[in-house]
Amino acid sequence: MNPTLQRLYDGWLALLEILRCPFLLAVRLYWGINLVIAGWGKVMNLEKVTGFFSSLGIPFPQLNAVLAAGTETLGGLLFVLGLGSRIVPIPLLFVMGVAYATAEQDSLKAIWTDPDKFTSAAPFEFAFAFLLVLLFGPGKLSVDAWIARKKNAAVRE
Description:
The chain contains 8 helices and no strands.
């Protein structure tokens, strides 16, 4: 490869590496805060959420309302902090899967026939953000990274 092109490409990769951390932080903050708000809204209106879950045919609607509200609130907070970021997205993805399977059935059924309908459903963006962090980690600006740095420093001592 041409040395100039190689330098440009290497510089491009270095810039992308620098941008990874703030990007992952922005993903965690934006979708995590929105999830905490949604979860807290459920916590504060459990009776209404229970009725909605009941209308969707979700078994044990009161228990599931409490579980969804708690998972969204606590999971969203942990997601924002980047704590347990290789585990926390799993129950959050499950909650989004249940949302698709119940409240967004038409959108889920349209995954291949009308992808715009599928991707414009509320659970999609949350699930996408959770997958990003699950697969790529929370970034260096997270509690997980801070713990790892502390652990590595202790091992070197």
